[in-house]
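> example.struct
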């Protein structure tokens, strides 16, 4: 992973003084997770570009961890993540702190800079990049990459090459990168320490309290909830005259999150109950995600063969970790298979099962691919029982924090009303020789119904 910083203010080579790195030399630094190299790709009076290249040692990542294939297969060596932040702090420490022994007067100057990151994982994609960097005065451009070039229909990945341009002090640019690179990322931090809150507040001084996305930043930077609460409380004190009101807002936000969690549990519980009652022995979990349903299925002896399938490698890795696959006794282990595959392609491995669960998956499929999915499931895999759940769009008005007309998740391609889902499901049942009945999941409102809708297909 590579970070470059370009200055175009003559004499642009002053960048070398600001970074404390001589443009004429290549320098390497030993970090405890690998190596960092600093070099300049151009160094003229008009234009000077410094590059920080990280070479993360994958063996280090494995050492001291346990379980899961995640530790062997991951993107860490290739992307800018919290490792980049650690490297920034160690290699450009004085520049980050706004110090220059040789040219202290340069430090105060706001100059046009361009920073480029290749590549960063960004959960939430380009809109998140804009929401994070634009309020700080950056012009953001992002180049996205497809998940798999040979399968364009899988859509775009969460990886981007990002260019940020602004007229700013170099120390501010480095500070923003230091805090926001880990915020873009989905992964936990390389560092995990109780001084995280202090670190965020220190580096956030002067800009974080007034950043419109400060909550998102704190949440993603700190990850653990009690730390987030502590940080927000302090940030709010800086500029919020009514801390009680915001305490209340936080409590409400948490309640909403908790409600969502328990909704997920209710949904899985209902799916499990339907599968159990059907007497199914061999079951599919299609679009199994991180394997929460698989975990429940494994705990039930009645299910002798369980198959989880997902298009996302990352999800399968997380499932394998959640289920402690490597440490399961052979008898248990043999009941479960994880398959990598797309539900929009005919797949012989899925044929001949008693039942299939497709939980909160169809709304992730492009409408154009829905036809293919229907045939893959009902015509080719053709299980005796199919359970499909999807959000009920009518219920969205009850989620206080969801602006009208918005979908619940950025990756949802559509959300159906009850009538829309039932029309689709009844049509497919008729077409493929199934009958379907519908069940609400979650608290049912007399007008808008329940948050989740479920169709149970039998033949
Ligand atoms: N069933 C899980 C996950 C739901 S999220 C649960 O309820 O927790 C939707 C899942 O569908 C994601 O894991 C996503 O990777 C997967 N998915 C999306 N499109 C897919 C496709 N075409 N084929 C297989 N899985 C897909």
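> example.seq
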């Amino acid at each position: 992973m590579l970070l470059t910083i370009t200055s175009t203010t003559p004499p642009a080579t002053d960048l070398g003084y600001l970074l404390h790195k001589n443009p004429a030399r290549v320098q390497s630094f030993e970090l405890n997770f690998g190596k960092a190299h600093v070099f300049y790709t151009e160094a003229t009076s008009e234009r000077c570009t410094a590059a920080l290249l990280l070479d993360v040692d994958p063996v280090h990542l494995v050492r001291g961890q346990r379980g899961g294939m995640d530790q062997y297969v991951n993107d860490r060596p290739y992307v800018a993540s919290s490792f980049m932040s650690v490297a920034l702090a160690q290699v450009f420490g004085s520049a980050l702190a706004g110090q220059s022994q040789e040219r202290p007067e340069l430090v105060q100057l706001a100059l046009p800079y361009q920073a480029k990151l290749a590549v960063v994982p960004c959960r939430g994609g380009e809109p998140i990049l804009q929401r994070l960097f634009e309020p700080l005065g950056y012009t953001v451009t992002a180049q996205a990459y497809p998940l798999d070039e040979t399968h364009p229909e899988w859509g775009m990945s969460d990886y981007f090459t990002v260019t940020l341009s602004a007229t700013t002090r170099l120390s501010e640019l480095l500070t923003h990168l230091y805090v926001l690179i880990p915020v873009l990322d989905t992964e936990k931090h390389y560092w995990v320490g109780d001084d995280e809150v202090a670190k965020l507040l220190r580096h956030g001084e002067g800009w974080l309290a007034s950043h419109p996305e400060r909550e998102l930043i704190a949440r993603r930077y700190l990850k653990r909830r009690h730390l987030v609460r502590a940080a927000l409380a302090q940030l709010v004190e800086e500029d919020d005259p009514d801390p009680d009101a915001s305490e209340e807002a936080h409590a409400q936000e948490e309640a909403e999150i908790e409600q969502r969690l328990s909704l997920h549990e209710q949904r899985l519980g209902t799916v499990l109950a339907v599968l159990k009652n059907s007497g199914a022995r061999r079951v599919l979990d299609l679009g199994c995600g991180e394997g929460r349903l698989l975990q429940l299925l494994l705990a039930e002896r009645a299910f002798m063969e369980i198959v989880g399938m997902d298009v996302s490698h990352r999800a399968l890795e997380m499932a394998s970790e959640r289920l402690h696959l490597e440490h399961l006794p052979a008898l248990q282990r043999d009941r479960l298979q994880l398959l990598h595959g797309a539900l929009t392609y005919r797949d012989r491995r899925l044929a001949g099962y008693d039942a299939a669960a497709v939980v909160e998956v169809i709304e992730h499929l492009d409408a154009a691919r829905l036809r293919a999915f229907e045939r893959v499931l009902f015509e080719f895999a053709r299980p005796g029982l199919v359970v499909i759940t999807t959000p009920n769009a009518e219920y969205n008005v009850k989620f206080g924090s969801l602006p009208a007309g918005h979908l619940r998740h950025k990756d949802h391609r559509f959300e159906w009303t009850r009538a829309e889902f039932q029309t689709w499901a009844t049509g497919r049942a008729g077409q493929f020789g199934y009958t379907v009945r519908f069940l609400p999941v979650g608290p049912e409102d007399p007008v808008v119904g329940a948050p989740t809708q479920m169709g149970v297909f039998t033949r």
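> remarks
The chain has a mean pLDDT of 84.
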